[in-house]
Automatic annotation (TrEMBL), chains A, B:
Domain called Acyl-CoA oxidase/dehydrogenase middle: residue spans: 161-266
Organism, as annotated: Raineya orbicola
Keyword set, alphabetical order: FAD, Flavoprotein, Oxidoreductase
Protein name (database record): Acetyl-CoA dehydrogenase C-terminal like
Similarity section: Belongs to the acyl-CoA dehydrogenase family.
Length: 601, 601
């Protein structure tokens, strides 16, 4: 079994950096302890090692196709869904009353991470079921919960998100699938949905689409969209009845080929029934819950793919001899050195490690806020929710944008071999490319961050984040060797404030286009700053351990490498903010279309 | 036929920016004129449109395989080789006496660009034949020239470069294929070569490998390597005789699938004869000529792929409605706008245009130096050769590194559709990824730039480049609206000097590892500066036209878009030097292995 992630790093984050055991003090998590947490990770690792990792290449090579309306996917998916269901892993975070295990997201996110690291295409199936089930749990009625949730959590039924339409794409307000009331919460659904992942396959008995549509006569725009359960088979008198959901096409993707992306046609023969979830016209609000979860899921998947690629590259660099070190006097007869000893290869590896582990740390921070919001109340709850809302677009975008670059650097470490099917790098390179598109492109995330999150409640979320970061800065300054980095990060916070002072007035003037024109650059800046924060946070813990504990040699190496990677991030990556701020503070307008402009020939 | 490049832009560069007609004043090019140049481009376009572009997707979908030692590639390759041979396009730049057309490289590089834009995998075949033929022309004896060159230039025989070995990769000094003298310039060859593009296929009668091997008893290292012609079939008494070159394996690549990359086994049965080219032990020196040409070829191919992707993205952005402009008051009922009107999409398109056209301009500059070195003598010749040598690693690395990002942005413009096989973007994304690896990775190029080229002859090449850039700065300052950009670029030259003053002392101290540890970052900085120079150069010409000519509307749009793209590059890309310089001037050493370091767990 190849080494595709580090258990040591997961436990470092879980117990040393984010102190997950503390969560067990809360009533909601009282049945858990370190042992049960470990068991969840071990379960994930077993499923990953035994079922997922071995079929990763096969799922890509034997890409499923649509034949007579059916899609036969790899049979390992059936085994996987069954194993996950039996282990209680699909609904692990849900409450006992709906069959969940009340596992903290902080722990569960690492289980998801392991599954994605082993086989990102396969992990999509359960991630989608889990998210779809949560929508029903939170907003469905009792009958819906009883009918759908247990089957979805057992892995027998597949869940999906059915949002995107051909003419709407990122613009959800233009969703046009229609729903005609039939009474008793039933609606006749008509429309098309595209890019529906796991939207049709043969390894689940039924597929439950959580679908957005517009009830006849509903207001235009986002306030007229409702949420429906649309099963592939509806249950009538206890038996399966085809429900007018037709797989009209399958997308052949560059990567993640093992997860079919479907084009679905609904109700062409007036035979598709949807069941309203919650109140009419509240669909987008409900769906945003699933989307936010899914966004964190995409971030996590990106970090996982980057991690797998990193471990492959690391192993190769440790084994492959090539050339001599540049200071070697005798270039002719000295044996070749391992490529890991070349500074440039080391730089590429440090980049990958910094991205993969920095991203994961940021996602753990989000999970922690999620858990704390779950168990707290009042102002405290609001604070954690706000922090989570603010960080979510960043925690989707940084891992995906930088993850793509990290996997590219992993390929570069392999040279020509990395470009060939001899190693899994080329598949990882293809797979990860979707992540800046899934669940809202980077542009959508960036507009969400700058246009909504940063400014919400008069910047209260940003203030709360600054306080969180300040706490890390204080801790860091107590260590002589970390002081310098704390000062650097402090300055970066100032730089970000400066940029916001430049940009926010445009919003106040109602010039949103100018305000958000370079939102993607602001996003990159924010990503670099919060990931630098996560690295400093990890370095503080590592430094503490190095000073106070008597450690095994391997632990010393582990903690030193954490500090080394933090140093890398501050030296090579964080200074990109200088470039970004230069642009963001510049008055020259370039990308906004003026009336006369007839550009680009 | 899709629009995959702009003829208007090629002619702008050829005649307006680089004034190719001036070359016809030289004796060597005296038979040419604008008409003959145009005809060469038209010929390339016809072959590209009629033969190459239509089979671009097919060559990828029907990937060739190795069956019983043979590789059947797309039959279009045979047609292509024939058409190119008949049109005199393979050896167009060579002298009349060897059957060439004495076409300036400045013109020919655009013909290659057109072919690569249509089908980068196919264009590899002729590029390799052309480069291999040049080696024989320049260093082979008359018999070799007579036997091989005409067949290679007619497209009947395929040429290859056979350098890489399994244990050597980038480290050519470790080449170990052996050559045992048989007398009369013949040698018994034994060894293995890997990643040999077009190393075996069925659309050429014969394949002529230009191969590096070590004559028995030769000195170790790079000074013991010789160059051989190793044909697939040797000619004995006028008939083909198998020559012990066995296709032992084929690499299945992520992209450029239409060009088989072969693992070749030579002389396993003592039956492989190689013919020494030139003097013994001079092989690497000879091969470097081909490699330098090939490096520019890879740069050109990268610019071409980025261009094709850009035109696809541009067309999509002009057709696809999605969302509303952010300043639109009525978001509900206003019809959707074309995505090209969103600032972020426009930013991504400008990035692609800036990279594609800026790279091509840099490559044209290199071709011009190549031509001027060809026709001049003495100090002038030396100057142009020096400029070419200095720019070659940059002109390979910037287009490939930034080209990969540009195609990724093209995919992002398409959203989910770009990730699917419905559009050619995903293939372009896979194809272009090889370019930072081919012909020396970016790390190798960067060490060449900083470690050799910048410092050669006490920095004379860099001085010469500064003078060239200064000339553009002077011209730019005569236009009020370009002054600001000239000043910015002037400052950037100072920044680069500052970085060199920091780094060169390490080389003087013999600490090459420290000197070159961040050579890749210096490379990126140098790339940004010289491409900014190319953009300013283009803007000067565009501005001159806008002020002095009475222009058609489409020309006004063309020139304005050149100035707009220059502004984009200076505002968004060039400021990256601030980040790069911050790191390059930093004293913190991070990537150099110390004795104790047992890093990365």
């Amino acid at each position: 079994m190849a080494n595709y992630f580090s258990f040591r790093n997961l436990k470092f984050l879980l117990y040393e950096v984010f102190d997950a055991e503390k969560l067990t003090q809360y009533e909601h998590y009282r049945d858990h302890d370190r042992q049960s947490f470990d068991m969840i990770l071990e379960t994930a690792k077993q499923i990953a090692d035994n079922i997922l990792y071995p079929i990763y290449r096969e799922m890509d090579e034997k890409e499923p196709d649509l034949v007579s309306g059916k899609v036969a996917v790899h049979q390992g998916i059936g085994k996987y869904l069954k194993a996950m269901g039996e282990a209680g892993m699909i609904g692990a975070t849900y409450s006992y009353e709906v069959g969940g295990g009340q596992v903290p997201a902080t722990v569960y996110s690492l289980a998801s991470f392991i599954l994605s690291a082993a086989n990102n295409a396969a992990s999509m199936y359960t991630g989608l079921s889990s998210g779809a089930a949560r929508l029903i749990i939170n907003f469905g009625n009792q009958e819906q919960k009883d009918l759908y949730v247990p089957k979805m959590l057992s892995g027998e039924w597949q869940g999906t998100m059915a949002l995107t339409e051909p003419q709407a794409g990122s613009s959800l307000s233009d969703v046009s699938a229609s729903a005609k009331p039939l009474g008793e919460g039933k609606y006749l659904i008509k429309g098309q949905k595209v890019f529906i992942s796991a939207g049709e396959h043969d390894q689940a008995e039924n597929i439950i689409h959580l679908l957005l549509a517009r009830i006849e006569g509903a207001p235009a725009g986002i306030k007229g969209i409702s949420l429906f359960i649309v099963p592939k088979y509806r249950i009538e008198n206890g038996s399966f009845q085809p429900n007018g959901v037709v797989a009209g096409g399958i997308y052949h993707k560059m990567g993640q080929k093992g997860t079919p992306a479907m084009h679905l046609m609904l109700g062409d023969n007036n035979d598709c029934i949807g069941y309203l979830v919650g109140e009419p016209h509240q669909g987008l609000k409900y769906m945003f819950q699933m989307m936010n979860e899914a966004r964190l899921g995409v971030g996590l998947m990106s970090a996982a793919i980057a991690t797998t690629a990193y471990y492959h590259a690391l192993q190769y660099a440790n084994e492959r001899p090539q050339g001599r070190r540049l200071n070697e006097k005798d270039q002719k007869t000295t044996p070749q050195t391992k490529i890991i000893n070349h500074p440039d290869v080391r730089r590429m590896l440090l980049f990958q490690k910094a991205v993969a582990e920095g991203s994961l740390s940021l996602l753990m921070e989000c999970s922690r806020y999620f858990d704390l919001a779950e168990v707290s109340a009042g102002e405290e709850k609001a604070k954690y929710q706000m922090l989570l809302d603010l960080l979510t677009p960043i925690a989707k975008t940084f891992p995906s944008e930088y993850g793509i670059k990290a996997v590219s650097e992993a390929m570069q470490v392999f040279g020509g071999y990395g470009y060939c099917k001899d190693f899994p790098i080329e598949q990882l390179y293809r797979d990860i490319r979707i992540t800046t598109i899934y669940e809202g492109t980077s542009a959508i995330q960036s507009q969400d961050l700058l246009g909504r999150k940063v400014t919400m409640q008069n910047g209260a979320a940003l203030m709360a984040l600054m306080q969180e970061i300040s706490q890390t800065l204080q801790e860091a300054t107590t260590y002589e060797n970390l002081k310098k980095y704390a000062e650097t990060l402090q300055k970066e916070l100032g730089r970000m404030q400066q940029v916001l002072q430049k940009l926010i007035p445009f919003a106040m003037q109602g010039n949103y286009e100018r305000f958000l024109a370079d939102a993607n650059l602001f996003m990159e800046m924010a990503g670099l700053v919060v990931v630098a924060w996560q690295w400093l946070k990890q370095a503080v813990v590592a430094q503490k351990q190095l000073l106070t504990q008597s450690l095994a040699e391997s632990d010393v190496a582990f903690y030193e490498s954490k500090i080394q990677t933090m140093r890398y991030f501050f030296a090579y990556e964080l200074p990109k903010t200088k470039w970004l701020a230069t642009r963001l503070l510049d008055d020259e307008v370039i990308t906004i279309v003026e009336a006369k402009a007839e550009w680009i020939v």
